[in-house]
Design brief:
With 683 residues, the protein is α+β, with helices and mostly antiparallel strands. It has 21 helices and 15 strands.
């Protein structure tokens, strides 16, 4: 295994409202809701195959309807007097939303003027390009109405695997949109309020994942097959026709049906016999040392110290920034803000941004750091390498040093220490704040911060009155603080909670035919879920190489493909690697694996073929046919499904070490500790 051998990246679960539902079967799921709701089709009917004229209309008290308001502000297709109105909450980067589009198109053709489609945005936080794409789509609607919106909508879905800023600009130009207005929409988050209104409505109605449809108010969740839609549509047409016959104007049918509908979803019922989740104690004080020189704003002798763990690509971290600014203005010298990095692994540009920010601090101290910090958050929808360098130049950084830092992953030791500190305190999501040691999670409103700050300010003033110097207040308050998460009395411990258990063993059967390394009878089996385009999968390779050398003969490594949908070349690369393995076994696979990671920035079709030729001994006609026919795609999708079936919610890289999950490009010490534990358990 060469130094570029790769292992799986891990997705850290975001406790603060960022979640991973990316791979939830029929739809992308936001972690704001722990469970995906089933389609609401509670009806008694004998639906005929031939359409609405033979469908039995269920009694209205037999169906569950939601009141989903419709205004001229929403793009739509179809006539206002259509008998059935479908409101779609969707996300341009969600693969399941893209998958359902042909079904929606077929519905509109099949039912003609009887169906109207209304669009609402629900960009999920773990899709970094979804919100900018929504901004462009809204701008298209503002400039050219429905025609322009749906034309841009179609192109966004066609290009959803690469919704980078250049792609968005290209789509906008292709449809004749005013470039200055499009730039303003993206750069200034011009339509954030509109998007947020849609998101809040979706949350209120229980539409946490995408896509979610409301068919005359009846909820249908996910990329369902056509029959699931037609069943409800046929019933609703029958119901609507009865209303029209009884005197209701066709253009009033939707309002009539939803007049007394639910305006919010009931909270999800806990599953029977399932333990409740551990609840952190909001009053616990944690020991969060700030002994080294961290970026900060405010004086060292401030009475209240706020340590912020944040991620430059996290939308919630960006959203809370104005709140933090107001706090610093309102409290003046009484508050100090200390910055720590916690770049989440499913944000591919977060770590490069953190490296650049640390380099800015090293070069120019607080002044340069906060200037770059502001630019990174202002442009967090496009934190490409080129843009990071551009922002560095704007704040006056030494560009040779910045490029070297980015090339060599400088400052990663310190960044990983900050990540480990966050995890040890139970703050695995972003943003997370420790206010004089008290944890406040997420993009909370100003009032939530104010309550804790005012309480801590009163305590600090009392300490000063009793003789503690201002500069020693923070140290005094946290000196006996907790060094790991504190739960409320009566709350189950993490080891009791099956989802939160750090020691949980996942039942993930070994694949029948997969690339491996090391003896099959080794005491420790590591299953690596990885993505050839993921930068963190690449970064962890030297660590895995070191591990396999130190534990030679004791570890059996099994490769599992886990291409993430927002990496446009990851699936083709996985298919290509599968074909190389099929033809040449482990030796050829690992050679090709190393070449893929070495060329990770350009994994287009031509490169995949060129690298296969470099490996040698590969039948290129067969190789090309495998890619053309997606020969290995089902097997790769089965790999993803197997991981999901185990109950693990991961990103890349992720490692199952004798079934225990280690997530992310962790330092060597973390792998060593996990393997040592597995060896001890096996002996």
């Amino acid at each position: 295994m060469s130094k570029s051998s790769s292992l799986v990246t891990v997705l850290v679960t975001a406790v603060s409202a960022i979640g991973i539902g990316l791979f939830a079967g029929q739809g992308c799921q936001s972690s704001k809701s722990p469970t995906t709701e089933a389609p609401q089709i509670a009806v008694k009917t004998d639906t005929a195959k031939n359409g609405a004229d033979k469908a039995a209309a269920p009694a209205d008290n037999e169906v569950e309807r939601y009141k989903v308001p419709i205004t001229d502000a929403q793009p739509d297709r179809g006539k206002p007097d259509a008998l059935v109105t479908i409101v779609e909450f969707s996300d341009f980067q969600c693969p399941f939303c893209g998958r359902v589009e042909p079904t929606v198109e077929q519905i509109l053709k099949q039912y003609g003027d009887k169906v109207r489609l209304v669009w609402r945005n629900n960009p999920l936080p773990f899709h970094p390009n979804a919100e900018p794409a929504a901004q462009v789509a809204i701008e298209a609607f503002k400039q050219g109405g429905n025609d322009k919106f749906w034309a841009v909508h179609d192109d966004l879905f066609k290009n959803q695997r690469d919704l980078s800023r250049p792609t968005l600009d290209k789509i906008a130009a292709a449809h004749g949109l005013d470039k200055s207005k499009v730039d303003a929409a993206i750069d200034d988050h011009k339509y954030s309020d509109e998007i947020k209104d849609d998101e809040q409505l979706a949350a209120r109605l229980g539409a946490r994942g995408t896509p979610t449809f409301f068919i005359n108010g009846r909820k249908l969740v996910g990329a369902q097959p056509l029959p699931a839609f037609t069943k409800i549509i046929d019933e609703e047409i029958a119901t609507a026709e009865k209303l029209v016959k009884s005197g209701t104007p066709a253009d009033k049918v939707y309002a009539t049906l939803t007049a007394n509908a639910l305006d919010k979803a009931a909270p999800p019922k806990p599953a029977p016999n399932q333990p409740s989740r551990p609840q952190p104690d909001p009053n616990a004080v944690y020991k969060v040392p700030v002994t080294r020189d961290y970026p900060q704003r405010g004086p060292n002798d401030a009475l209240v110290t706020i340590v912020e763990f944040s991620d430059f690509q996290c939308p919630f971290c960006g959203r809370v920034e104005p709140t933090i600014e107001k706090i610093l203005q309102d409290y003046g010298k009484d508050v100090r803000l200390v910055w720590m990095n916690n770049p989440l692994p499913f944000h591919p540009n977060a770590k490069p941004s953190a490296i650049a920010a640390e380099e800015a601090f090293a070069q120019g101290g607080n002044k340069m750091f906060w200037k770059l910090h502001d630019l990174l958050f202002k442009n967090q929808s496009d934190l490409s390498r080129a843009n990071i360098e551009k922002f560095g130049q704007e704040v006056g950084m030494n560009m040779a040093k910045l490029r070297a830092a980015l090339d060599n992953d400088a400052h990663m030791d310190e960044i990983q220490k900050q990540e480990q500190l966050a995890r040890s305190l139970g703050a695995s999501g972003t943003p997370s704040f420790f206010i004089n040691g008290r944890n406040l999670r997420g993009a909370q409103p100003y009032a939530s911060f104010k309550i804790v700050i005012d309480q801590e300010l009163a305590k600090a003033k009392k300490l000063v009155e009793d003789g503690t110097p201002r500069a020693k207040v923070y140290e005094k308050i946290i000196e006996n603080g907790a060094t790991k998460q504190v739960l409320l009395p009566g709350s189950p411990t993490p080891s009791d909670d099956q989802e939160a258990a750090a020691d949980k063993v996942y039942k993930l059967p070994l694949p029948e035919n997969a690339p491996t390394m090391g003896p099959k009878d080794a005491k420790v089996v590591i299953q690596e879920a990885s993505d050839f385009q993921c930068p963190f999968c690449h970064r962890v390779n030297p660590t895995i190489e070191q591990l396999m050398k130190e534990y030679k003969g004791k570890v059996h490594l099994v490769w599992r493909d886990y291409p993430l949908p927002f990496h446009s070349n990851a699936m083709p690369a996985a298919e290509a690697a599968r074909e190389v393995f099929e033809q040449g076994g482990n030796d050829k696979f690992w050679q090709y694996h190393d070449l893929l990671f070495a060329n990770q920035q350009n994994l287009d079709r031509a490169t995949l073929e060129k690298l296969a030729e470099q490996v040698g001994g590969i039948n290129m006609a067969k190789f090309r046919a495998a890619l053309d026919n997606n020969t290995h795609k089902k097997a790769i999708e089965a790999e993803i499904a197997a991981v999901q079936a185990s109950g693990a919610r991961i990103g890349t890289p992720a490692f199952f070490i004798n079934g225990r999950l280690l997530m992310g490009a962790q330092p060597y010490s973390s792998f060593k500790a996990a393997v040592d534990k597995a060896l001890a358990d096996a002996s």
